[in-house]
Amino acid sequence: MGTSLKGRTIVMSGGSRGIGLAILTAAARQGANAVFLAKTDTPDPRLPGTVHTAVTEIEAAGGSAVAVVGDVREEADVERAVATAVDRFGGVDICVNNASALDVRGTEELPLKRFDLMQSINSRGTFLLTRSCLPYLKHSEHAHILTLSPPLNLDPRWLGAHPGYTLSKYGMTLLTLGWAAEFAQHGIAANCLWPQTMIATAAVSNVLGGEEVASRSRSPEIMADAALAMLTRAPHEQTGQTLVDADVLVEAGVTDLARYGGGQNPELDLFVDPPQVG
Asked: Active-site residue 170, yes or no?
């Protein structure tokens, strides 16, 4: 780890559960502030936790947290979340694009409504949240944009698997790489982070294979630890990168990933190819 996140303010889309909550909780252990925009004001029987339980968990870890109930597709909600960070904590140091919609049906099976949902949450939501944070990131001495999106793997296996979802996630990556170039002169780091393996979240259990795949998935803490390894670096040290959690941790000196679960052969995530043999 490099610079501590003590006193730094994170604005995140989503964050009431899963990887987003794990990142905010890990940052809270270093004393970070968190403002997160999420919709789960009341319990959902299909999903664990609400924005209120998330605030409790983050603050129990040592940070300060404010939940803003809203939708990353709504400009007024996003602006309200950023304004909350500025009013409560004085600015924004880190923007984390975490919210994402997932539907891996093929082109003929994917309803247009679901296609539009993925583009509006994934690519458009990433653009909207980051654009709203930028005026404050420019004034931060530790400005980071972190987007949870994959490397641009153009193998036909992935291009042909679920083009609607792929477009939305690659759109997040392209935007982030673009911001690394566009705002380099302002000292803002912009990077992407993606899990090497499936992560044990509600999305994996409900959409990508149920409990059997979840049992071969690593815990969200691997993404949290990798995110902190990136976010605690000085912005000029790393920008314009699409990185995988396991690689980030190995570079940071973590050699034993068994602590994160998933068994001896964890299930690889989407867009991640198996290692070359020989």
From this structure: no
